[in-house]
Design a protein that fits this description.
The chain is of the alpha+beta class. Helix content is 49%, strand content 10%. It folds into 3 domains: 16-71 and 223-356, no CATH class; 78-216, no CATH class; 358-427, Orthogonal Bundle (Arc Repressor Mutant, subunit A). It has a 4-stranded mixed beta sheet. The chain has a 3-stranded antiparallel beta sheet with strand order 3-2-4. It has a 3-stranded antiparallel beta sheet with strand order 11-10-12. Helix 13 (267-303) crosses helix 16 (331-338) and helix 15 (320-327) crosses helix 16. The model is unreliable at 10-15 and 53-74 (pLDDT under 50).
């Protein structure tokens, strides 16, 4: 075996600490970036944030939709609301202890998931006594609170309705599984009820709340969002503005500026020189972040003119790579720039990534975006005859016939699932 030393020249990309931090700053959300600047300013006296005179606007994002600006409301939680209502129940001291245990055992949906026998064992009580207090808990608002199952939750709410619900309660009590699976024909055969009567019960049930506890969890489920970019139309021209708090600017603290050019090499000068390098790096990183987002937004607006000027369902297919190629940067740079960013358009508040979508075949113009295909699919389902809902194949045929959008039945099923649209057999009304 011959051993020898050989030199080999290779090229490797080495990420310096400053470059790594600059990449992180590019993909920071507004909150993350502002926290980072606050932390750096605590250890670096030269960093001073420029004041912004733009009024702060918060936007409310619900589970599914973005809405116009709202003011956050203070709301009591579920346990506090139940304790307040319990004052009218005139509970004994022991019942109050059981009641407190029960409300602390409720999950976020308002259900009691713990077994009554286990609760009785923990409290050294009989299950009958626990049941008695539970019934009192279930008499409170919101209706259905304290239920041990979806079936019980529905029954409690039906019992509280002012209208006649005896038939509905009988169906839910005795045939809940068939009802939940919408096995209407078998259910009709077993109960003797017509399909239209079962449809009426279904309509009644849909008015109820399957998760009553969520009424008191709004603050946790909702998010107040300030847009990073604001888009508006002026004289028929699409324009945009970066939110200064999402893309902040810093300046050199004026108090320390004279000390940077003293020409004295003492500990203070060395300290300030190092802090000045950090300030300069952060200033450059923030400028680069704004410049990158400005370039990305210009390309998005150029591609999505129809969306901003004609309607929010008219999105063109656009990929991160396409924007990156135009800007002459890597695709990952565009991805980091849009990550976690929100934009306020004339129609809605949405994530910036909404404007990037894959292509689907269009018989007339070559290609359209999958977002547009989904919007047309949703429209077709909303307009269909509910007595004869459209099958996935029929939806695919109509998309091609009316809009020139060519997608397969399987793709229709995939888009339908993504839009939370039920299959035609379940959408059918009688």
């Amino acid at each position: 075996m011959n051993l020898h030393v050989q030199q080999q020249q290779t090229i490797k990309l080495h990420l310096t600490q400053n470059l790594t931090q600059a990449i992180e700053i590019l993909q920071y959300t507004s909150a993350e970036l502002n926290n980072q600047i606050d932390e750096l300013s605590l250890e670096n006296p030269l960093i001073e944030r420029k004041d912004s005179d733009i009024p702060r606007s918060f936007y409310h994002k619900t589970d599914q939709f973005f809405q116009r600006p709202e003011t956050a409301k203070t709301q009591e939680d579920l346990q506090t609301a139940l304790k307040r209502q319990a004052l009218d129940l005139q509970l004994s001291k022991r019942e109050t202890q059981i009641f407190q245990y029960l409300i602390n055992s409720l999950d976020t949906n308002g259900y009691l998931t713990e077994n009554l026998f286990d609760i009785a064992a923990d409290l050294s009580e009989t299950s009958e006594e626990i049941e008695k207090v539970l019934v009192k808990l279930q008499s409170l608002e919101p209706a259905g609170i304290g239920a041990r199952s979806l079936q019980e939750c529905i029954l409690i709410q039906l019992q509280r309705l002012p209208k006649e619900t005896a038939t509905a309660r009988e169906v839910i009590s005795s045939y809940f599984e068939l009802f939940a699976n919408k096995a209407w024909k078998e259910l009709s055969a077993r109960t003797g009820l017509s399909l239209s009567e079962l449809q009426h019960i279904q309509d009644l049930i849909t008015e109820l709340s399957p998760r009553p506890g969520l009424a008191y969890e709004a603050d946790e489920r909702s998010v107040y969002i300030e847009p990073d970019v604001l888009i508006f139309i002026r004289d028929g021209i699409v324009m945009f503005e970066l939110n200064s708090r999402s893309f902040p600017d810093i300046q050199l603290h004026s108090f320390y500026e004279p000390f940077l050019n003293r020409g004295v090499k003492d500990d203070t000068s060395v300290f300030l020189a190092n802090k000045y390098k950090q300030w300069k790096w952060l200033d450059q990183a923030l400028r680069q972040r704004r410049e990158t987002m400005t370039k990305v937004m210009r390309e998005i607006i150029a591609c999505q003119q129809n969306y901003f000027l004609k309607g929010k369902d008219d999105l063109q297919p656009l990929t991160l790579k396409a924007v990156a190629d135009v800007l002459g940067v890597h695709e990952s740079t565009v991805s980091r720039a849009v990550k976690g960013k929100f934009v306020q358009t004339p129609y809605e508040l949405c994530e910036l990534k909404r404007f990037f979508s894959a292509k689907v075949k269009d018989a007339s113009v070559g290609h359209t975006s999958n977002h547009t295909a989904k919007a047309k699919l949703l429209f077709l389902v909303e307009e269909e005859n509910k007595m004869k809902p459209l099958s996935d194949q029929k939806l695919a045929d109509l998309l091609k016939e009316r809009y020139g959008i060519v997608i397969s039945r399987r793709t229709v099923a995939k888009y339908r699932d993504q839009l939370n649209i039920l299959p035609s057999s379940i959408r059918k009304r009688y």
